[in-house]
Amino acid sequence: MGVGLTLGISLILILTFVPRVWIGVISVALAIATWEVARRLREADVLVPRIPLIVGGQAVIWLGWPYGAMGVLSSFMATVLACMVWRLFDHGLRATPRNFLRDTAITVFVAAWIPLLGAFTTLMVLEENGARKVLVFMIAVVCSDVGGYAAGVLFGKHPMVPAISPKKSWEGFAGSLVFCVIGCLLTVTLMLHANSLIGILLGVALVFVATMGDLIESQIKRELGIKDMGTLLPGHGGIMDRLDSLLPSAFVAWAVLTALV
């Protein structure tokens, strides 16, 4: 609780007073998250090219600053190509590559899952009222988490997908939906001065996508036979364990707020 509260307050202060620093914070967090996932995959004998993946991931994030969405997309494609070439010669020039198709497919997934989706938070902060948009997004995620946890603990009786995440319930999903929609309704109207229907749409979309993101990471960890992606945050796992629902939600928030606000 203390770690999460400290991080939350720090991010709010950064967004309020020095919003451009947000890009640096995101770049560090995503680099660590990429390293955590790559390390776990290598433990499972999946050879993900960590160096080009992390370096390319930084390009995906930072090139969004001067070049916008085109910079993000171009650097993502360059990262994918660099990782494919790196993996091709991972065993040396004379050895025949093993599991090349599997490893490159997983590498592309990781590149899209972490730096590409994460880059949309940097695109968001660079827009007009960007800091406020990111705050709306973060408040929505917090509301969703709080509502889901409270409703799940108090009323959770019907598992949503027990084969993937036994603790996730339909009651918790409903709690997330109610809290997130209320949070988005208030923040979109009060902070962005936009139509209340946009807040409702954003809240519904974020809860659905955040839930899917959480389930996707749960399935990945289940297949890898691990509980957490990392150990950097005591009691919370690693950085990636905090970003599982945030990353896909960032894209949805950027798309909705850019198109409609």
UniProtKB/TrEMBL annotation:
GO-annotated cellular components: plasma membrane
Membrane topology annotation: Multi-pass membrane protein
Swiss-Prot/TrEMBL keywords: Cell membrane, Lipid biosynthesis, Lipid metabolism, Membrane, Nucleotidyltransferase, Phospholipid biosynthesis, Phospholipid metabolism, Transferase, Transmembrane, Transmembrane helix
Subcellular location: Cell membrane
GO BP annotations listed: CDP-diacylglycerol biosynthetic process
Signal peptide: none
Class in the EC hierarchy, top level: transferase
One matching Pfam family: CTP_transf_1
EC nos: 2.7.7.41
Associated pathway: Phospholipid metabolism; CDP-diacylglycerol biosynthesis; CDP-diacylglycerol from sn-glycerol 3-phosphate: step 3/3; Lipid metabolism
Catalytic reactions on record: a 1,2-diacyl-sn-glycero-3-phosphate + CTP + H(+) = a CDP-1,2-diacyl-sn-glycerol + diphosphate
GO molecular function: phosphatidate cytidylyltransferase activity
Matching PANTHER family: PHOSPHATIDATE CYTIDYLYLTRANSFERASE
Protein family per UniProt: Belongs to the CDS family.
Record protein name field: Phosphatidate cytidylyltransferase
Originating organism: Antrihabitans cavernicola
Lineage: Bacteria, Bacillati, Actinomycetota, Actinomycetes, Mycobacteriales
